[in-house]
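User: Can you write out an input/output pair for a complex, sequences first and structure second?

Assistant: Here is one pair. Inputs:
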Amino acid sequence: MTQSQELRLGVIGDPIAHSKSPVMHAAALRARDMAGEYIALHVTPDRLEETIGAVRRQGYRGINVTIPHKENVMAYLDELSDEARRIGAVNTIVNDGGRLIGRNTDGIGYVRSLKEEAAARLEGRRIVVIGAGGAARGIVHALAAEGPDRITLLNRTTQRAEALAREWSDLADIRALASERTAEALADADIVINTTSVGMHPHTEELPLDPALLRGTEIVSDLIYNPLETRLLKQAREAGCVTHGGLGMFVYQGAYAFEYWTGAPAPIEEMRAAVLASMGVSARNG
Ligand code: NAP
């Protein structure tokens, strides 16, 4: 490859030093023998517009977008994919010859991970989603496309879950229940997904729900990947449920981005191993 064909990629966020995306995409480029670089750019909100201008001019092929820019960045792009527009957030920008296209790979990345790692079929399943924040929006949007029997949303702030259920009532049977009705919602659930930050490092002792309610649940999934196994997942595993952690979501949202930028299939296992290694875990043990 000549110098001009080198892929320029990166991620913008504030803060950004903790991001595992650079190590994961560097491993992907290496595994596919592609010349290029993926850098972390610390961008504060007041510098977002000028940074997007520089991305366009300086020939970046792609950029990932993380907290706190996923919503605000949309104003500076030329085009949005249908799912990014509907979710209201962009985590991946593709630069097509100076035209910036915003996409959202968080939800589809999560669903690909869930299907690969825990639930081959989502059609006809009864799914409970705990939480109604930014991550839940992407996930519920992608789950709805899989033809579930129904999706029940439970959130600390019930009105937020109700608003989401109303907004997407055209996509699937999506309903909201107050968190006091968690037992009722879980009674006939096939799959339970925690999209809240409850249980994340450093508050690893916290639980988003009473694990005793999971007795009949087939699959329990948690978006959190620090720790790799949350207390919720540990207790669900001990109760006999199939468990699914958040690392796969992170890997697959990056995999979709890599595929949009390069047109090549993402080297999933190398990407996963690189993230695990950066967390001090060997892939074989992870
Ligand atoms: P967010 O937009 O701030 O939403 C947070 C959600 O958690 C809301 O539903 C909030 O409820 C709920 N919540 C927060 N603290 C709570 C508590 N003490 N008790 C009950 N509910 C509580 O955050 P987000 O962007 O959706 O992220 C949520 C989680 O997903 C984080 O742990 C994040 O690390 C994880 N995530 C993982 C990946 C991945 O690649 N694996 C990607 C994105 C996000 P209220 O509406 O009542 O405030």
